[in-house]
């Protein structure tokens, strides 16, 4: 069981908007620690997508956005494209574990 | 450009040992906290360990505490993971990753990973 909870899968048609949730607790997201998001294509290492809740690294399209509230966070993808089909992971820090924690991952399928 | 290159993955028997390395280049290695993150076959990401800039502080996931040791040699720009008493559940691709904003930050660069298989 992952410390952060994500839905196992989401799907959407090209051009649509999808969101992926990430739920934590009072020792991680709820304690004020930032949430970060990664995209992983098959056979490749994860790639940083969103850092510190809602910031995009250089080169990441503005179709990707993040938000955080309370003990949860969300990743939104608008204008869905076939190339967005991948696994998405949220990550934060947990003070009771003294280490980073990940969500279980969400597989995005573009219909 | 920033590069992280892992090596040392292999097939090892349960109870055996293995040492992974991660060679860094393209940035000032000693200025960053570096982590090991693993991913079992068909599974999600699991944080394994982290080491402070100068190696004085080390952090471990409960699943590897007492069995794995993280270390670094800043003169060689290299990170290590000594893995002892290996179990089948340690089978995974092991990534080294650089973190921004210290130990509790995010991972902005990842290596390609090295595969560790624990099997008899």
Record the SSE blueprint.
The complex is a heterodimer of chains A (111) and B (120).
Chain A: E1 9-12, E2 18-23, E3 36-40, E4 47-50, E5 64-69, E6 72-77, E7 86-94, E8 99-102, E9 106-110
Parallel strand pairs in A: 1-9
Antiparallel strand pairs in A: 2-6, 3-4, 3-7, 5-6, 7-8, 7-9
Chain B: E1 3-7, E2 11-12, E3 18-25, E4 33-39, E5 45-51, E6 58-60, E7 68-73, E8 78-83, E9 92-100, E10 106-110, E11 114-118
Parallel strand pairs in B: 2-11
Antiparallel strand pairs in B: 1-3, 3-8, 4-5, 4-9, 5-6, 7-8, 9-10, 9-11
Task: Describe the protein in words.
The complex is a heterodimer of chains A (111) and B (120). With 111 residues, chain A is mostly beta strands. Helix content of chain A is 0%, strand content 44%. Chain A is built from no helices and nine strands. In chain A, strands 1, 3, 4, 7, 8 and 9 form a six-stranded mixed sheet that branches. A three-stranded antiparallel sheet of chain A has the order 2-6-5, with no helix packed on it. Chain A is globular, with a radius of gyration of 13 Å. The model of chain A has no long low-confidence stretch (mean pLDDT 97). The model of chain B has no long low-confidence stretch (mean pLDDT 97). Helices cover 0% and strands 52% of the residues of chain B. Chain B is mainly beta. The N and C termini of chain B lie far apart (40 Å). In chain B, the strands form two sheets. In chain B, strands 2, 4, 5, 6, 9, 10 and 11 form a seven-stranded mixed sheet that branches. Classes of the chains: A mainly beta (111), B mainly beta (120). At the A-B interface, strand 7 and strand 8 of A face strand 5 and strand 10 of B.
Keywords:
heterodimer; A: 111 residues; mainly beta; 6-stranded mixed β-sheet; 3-stranded antiparallel β-sheet; B: 7-stranded mixed β-sheet; 4-stranded antiparallel β-sheet; 0% helix; globular
